[in-house]
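Closing statement on the 2'-O-acetyl adenosine-5-diphosphoribose sub-project.
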Amino acid sequence: MTAGRDTVRAWVNEARHIVVLTGAGVSAESGVPTFRDALTGFWARFDPQELATEAAYRANPAQVWRWYQERRAMVGKVQPNAGHLALAAYARQNPGRMSLITQNVDGLHQRAGQADAIALHGSLVQDRWLDAPRNCCEEHELQDGQPPLCATCGNLRRPGVVWFGENLPAEALAAAEQATAECDLMLVVGTSGQVYPAAGLAFAAHQQGARVVVINPETTEIDRIADACLRERSATCLPFLLMESV
Ligand code: OAD
């Protein structure tokens, strides 16, 4: 029997430093599909090896670029939801008390007002050079659907997200590990906990004595070490935990 939402709200009030680790589920109520939902998830409909690896991009840049362009357009049309807004309001009202680590690349936490969110998997809205840029590298737009490239050397722009097999941005990972080492409460929200090193942060928090709370309507890989599992949606649960506390 794990603790319920009232107990978790008391833990939030007691905590010295809270880390919130988020995944695709926090954006689900904004209308962004998750990755692993059996019906609507991206990875139920597309093969990640054909879309989210460097090899796939080099083999078929136009197809991969178009997929990311579609996702970019889609997230541009949706809005942060009550969960994103509750986190941003809490961080604003309690400076220095919360660190937000996200696996999401949709930019919704940032648009809700958390520009300092630690973006472990990069960003859908910023791209970068595929190969290390040379002096000649200047971006040229081609016709719709083609990735921009350098007209001189052919270097391609690529989505600024982390693909399978790639390292996480070193600075973001270091900031995430440091925040985790300093927290006494970690809220793990809307993630299946299947992707590392992100999921490992929850285990590290548990190991160093922090309380770990999972907020997710479904079971996750993190549940077995959690002090509480709240089977709720983030856009309902986070406002309850963070906004209505006394
Ligand atoms: P997943 O698709 O693996 O998991 C999403 C989780 O959100 C599931 O556990 C759902 O039960 C939960 N969920 C759905 N709706 C929810 C809601 N309203 N409130 C709370 N939870 C809800 O997504 P991630 O765990 O984020 O990586 O996936 C991790 C990484 O795998 C992603 O960052 C992406 C992907 O491949 C890269 O692209 C590098």
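Residues 23-25, 28-29, 34-36, 41, 52, 103, 121, 161-162, 190-192, 194-195, 216-218, 220, 233-234 surround 2'-O-acetyl adenosine-5-diphosphoribose (CB under 6 Å). With this model delivered, the sub-project is considered complete and its resources will be redirected to Aim 3.
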